[in-house]
Task: structure prediction
Amino acid sequence: MSLDGHLHAAAEEYPMLRETVRALADEKIAPRAAAADENEEFPWEVYKDLVAADLHAVHIPEAYGGAGADALATVIVIEEVARACASSSLIPAVNKLGTVPLLLSGSQELKRRYLEPVARGEAMFSYALSEPEAGSDAAAMKTRAVRDGEHYVLNGTKMWITNAGISEFYTVMAVTDPQAGARGISAFVVEKGDAGVSFGAKEKKLGIKGSPTRQVILEDVRIPADRMIGEPGTGFKTALATLDHTRITIAAQALGIAQGALDYAIGYVKERRQFGKPVAEFQGLQFMIADMAMKLEAARQLTYAAAAKSEQAMRGEKVADLTFFSSAAKCAASDAAMEITTDAVQLLGGYGYTRDYPVERMMRDAKITQIYEGTNQIQRMVMARQLLK
Result:
């Protein structure tokens, strides 16, 4: 199915889109998920399949050759890919994370230059905000960008960068005015091929092992001044505005992981027999399944509501409670995913604890959704600030 930008046209498009992505995920992505995890290798074959189906960066507007999917359609794509493989779902999710700064603040020329190759599937786009000493306190970053005529020269180290080394393009936040605090940070597009760009070793992680996480090291990286995204000093504002939209994609990833675990556990308890009957007939287990589904559905409705608000904001409408909703969705969905995947492992008993069954991988993959794009402790701070201001 081609997305053709009709996705905001009619509500009946969403179930069709879900069926399309689920069929692709069941056929092409799920069978490769265990190997991507085991071998800790980026799933290039999955990337090619997503590109062939135009599902690798669905959010890019038609004006730049993209599918023009709205925020809810993007959530559904990420959710259905994550149901099969969390690492693979970072392809559409991180392509959105890396490019939203351009969509929000970039010049027309910059958007055309960098969004079109992503839409064509020729390049991926990562996002480089965090540093070794600047995680939750992102404004404490040390990476510097110094003006030199028609260029900027960047120096610094970015940390925990998803798909680093795989992506061709990087949105990099750097300090242009050290005296101005958060208002002295600017955003730039850095290319993998720029002289002075290198990558740290792949982090050895608990989960999402099919998606490389590495440092991005910038040593005297000289880039044209027109690669700045927006005006000087607006980078941190752009970074925070970006996260308002992309925390929702992490919520979507969490929903997908949880759905995959719940579906597997339900199939298992219907088949597994103890004491002469399927374990699904024991009320203790029925209550667990009911709670898992209830938590998942509550998080899903919150996430879809947040996606609707994200879409309104992307279209230029003023949405006062987007920040609250995106933080709430990310926090609720990731907490639910951790509980649901942990319960799924429990429902499979000893089998749940082995790599022969997918739920232990889903449990490991779920953990990161509580940590990245703002820890859930930070999300609670963000929500409280919105409520108390």
User: Anything to note?
Assistant: The first helix runs from residue 13 to 39.
